[in-house]
Write a structure and sequence with these properties.
Two copies of one chain form a homodimer. Helices cover 84% and strands 0% of the residues of chain A. Chain A has 219 residues and is mainly α. Chain A is built from six helices and no strands. The radius of gyration of chain A is 19 Å and the shape is elongated. In chain A, helix 4 runs antiparallel to helix 5. The interface between A and B is medium-sized, with 32 and 32 residues.
Chain lengths: 219, 219
């Protein structure tokens, strides 16, 4: 039996949410592994990445097939393009979570530095942005998506604060340098995840309203 | 007069190359500004980013319009999807070039560290990858695109070498830490640009051969 366009659209929405759920878990797990010095959890996060990669391929294929087969009208097409772009962003987030898990593995035997307190705060904010961007997608809620974009400044503020703090550690004693450097890269990866969540939120606005708010177009 | 699909495809190809040329220049300029401590050049690079952003929007719009209006067959559709994805990658490369130019501005008054010698080497390799990925696109040359993907390992090797070198500086004397940290972030940005060039190369293979070689699919 020939499947309908709606069938494809439903399946794509479902796969995107599944992918988003996986990536959220990976981000949370990677930071947890860092804080708890849990190398088993770090390895589990790294192992999950394959599933995320496969989901991206699957979404891309189903999206392209839908466009070729059904030649959808403007709004459905915007949905398809947005889903495929968002899948790419989620896949990159997965890579960032892997980077964090790898840092956790390196740091597993080291005594903690104080910024462990701020990193989970940054991580919680970033996860919230990921969740909100996907919820906005499902709800077709452009206002909610724009709120995600606005939170990016908070992330940048926290990142800069962490940067200064870690730099101070490095200056204080050379024995902190390696640890602080790894934590800095962790913070950098969290900041990149927030950027990708912002991209998804921008795609939501494009899908729902048909306008491009990137690069300051939000007014 | 109604414009044909071929007209759109030609224009998109042209805009993508123009965008690629701009981004290549930005990468080269940013690294040059760093090495020569040339704050005018760094500012010029940062100013160019707006043009790159506009070109991305323009390509996205023209791509979506072409799909809706002409409902193209498989190969033309793959071309359109690949062009839009590549434009996104080029836009991110532009952002990385801006990050490098900003680091150049910070470092403009500082005495140089030795790794300035290795950074331009990494930058030259990365620019070559950007150029090759776009040439492969225009020539529809999948083999050339796959060669770009393979060079990514070279970049990772050079990056790791630089990382170790900069870490050694930091350990040696606290007065090197800030400078070394900024150079580390420059190296990281160059490595990310190489990742984006690899993405474009993967899109070329998808466009030319209709197969997805991401995540180890190249065999």
């Amino acid at each position: 039996m020939e499947r309908s366009l709606d069938h494809y659209l439903d399946e794509l929405r479902h796969d995107l949410l599944r992918m988003g759920g996986l990536v959220e878990e990976m981000i949370g797990g990677a930071v947890q592994a860092l804080v708890d010095r849990d190398d088993g959890l770090a390895r589990a996060v790294i192992a999950h990445d394959r599933q995320v990669d496969l989901l991206e391929k699957q979404i891309d294929e189903a999206g392209n097939t839908s466009i070729v087969r059904f030649q959808p009208a403007a709004r459905d097409l915007r949905f398809l393009v947005s889903v495929m772009k968002s899948a790419t962003d989620l896949e990159r987030m997965g890579d960032s979570a892997v980077n964090i898990a790898e840092a956790a593995l390196v740091l597993v035997g080291e005594p903690p530095l104080k910024p462990y307190i701020d990193l989970p705060r940054l991580a919680a904010l970033v996860r919230e942005m990921v969740k909100e961007s996907l919820d906005a997608f499902v709800q077709k809620d452009a206002a909610r998506a724009i709120a995600v974009c606005r939170r990016d400044d908070e992330v940048d503020g926290l990142y800069k604060q962490l940067f200064r703090e870690l730099l101070t550690y490095m200056m204080e004693d050379a024995k902190y340098i390696t640890r602080a450097l790894h934590l800095l890269l962790v913070a950098r990866n969290l900041e990149r995840i927030a950027d990708h969540a912002t991209n998804i939120a921008e795609d939501v606005v494009y899908y729902v309203e048909g306008r491009d708010i990137r690069h300051g177009g939000a007014g």
